[in-house]
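Reviewer comment 2.1 asked that we show a complete input and output for one of the modelled complexes. We chose the pyridoxal-5'-phosphate case, as it is the one discussed in the main text.
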Amino acid sequence: MALDLQLLVDRLRTVLGGEDACALHEPCFGGREWEYVKSCLDEGWVSSAGRYVDAFEDQLAAACGVNHAVAIVNGTAALHAALLLAGVGPGCEVIVPTLTFVGTVNAIAHCGAQPHFADSDPITLGLDPEKLARHLEACTSGDDCRNRVTGNRIAAIVPMHTFGHAVDMDGLCTVAERFGIPMIEDAAEAIGSTYRGKPLGSFGLAGVLSFNGNKTLTTGGGGAILTNDATFARDARHLSTTAKKAHRWEFDHDRVAFNYRMPNLNAALGVAQLEQLDGFLARKRALAGSYAEAVRGVQGVRFFEEPPHSRSNYWLNAILLDDDAVNLRDEVLARTNEVGIGTRPVWKLMHRLPMFAVAPRMDLSVAEDLERRIVNIPSSVRLGMAHAA
Ligand SMILES: *Cc1c(COP(=O)(O)O)cnc(C)c1O
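Response of the prediction step:
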């Protein structure tokens, strides 16, 4: 037999310990969360203005190596606003990996634009820059990079850093520059990850984070737009605050806009979580190290390790099935979940969802191959405690 399922379960148990049920990813509230949330209630500042929103934005910008962070209600809304500000709208196409969470592509569709699906690199699980360059050469023309078939302008590239692992950013930035396409990074999963020492989310015109309950750092629900561009940050604040012009009492608005700002209550959670970020990252990396070690002796699978030149937050750990075990994915999922080890397949590929089935695309064979091989395994910060020094 290509893969010994019992051996795999036993090896995972050496990392997870005991017989307890382990969820795929649970939040960790080990700091001043109660204190800060309570102070919002005590002070009466629960909504979209308040000192925690300001503090969270300042501390987040510092942690992510950017000049500005704008706190938003969730990651999808943050992507939506960032794409609109980058000029994405009807008649545009946006390059996006088919291997991503649906939120990335929903945000593009909310702009009235078309996703244009791109393939993945098996080393990073993110966009493959060389394959993208060849595709853009073949299918676009003109100074404004139009799709020759649809006539639409390729208005943005949205790389997504899968499970917190960096896309090949040297390669991708070169392609984006060569074709003159702005880049909005979906770094929803990648807080604390770096590429050549530079934090993910800080490479493009803007980057986006998510603080959903299953992410490394949570605000309940939440997201952020990161940017070094002061005008972009100002416009992001304006667009997400009903485009209200600053005035002490007048209600004056200068465009159709959104109520997308993060409430103070959520930001209070975020400030408490950010204080623990370094510890969270250390534990997640320690957990990943233990998995890599434990899975090494199991024939038929390998633990996915961080790509070259990068340092990953290991938001979601993953094992990949080898050729001789690739048809056993569903058995692996069934068996592990039966014994209380919360595992999941990767997202169904976006070009296979009914609402995106006719969207333009390149050859997607690498993503299609990866989809059959990836199994995510429990990754909560708590699980890393026993493994961190
Ligand atoms: C979580 C996530 C999002 C969306 O974030 P929400 O806060 O849930 O809206 C977008 N893209 C990716 C890749 C994600 O993992």
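The two ends are 37 Å apart (CA to CA). We note this here for comparison with the apo prediction described in Section 3.2.
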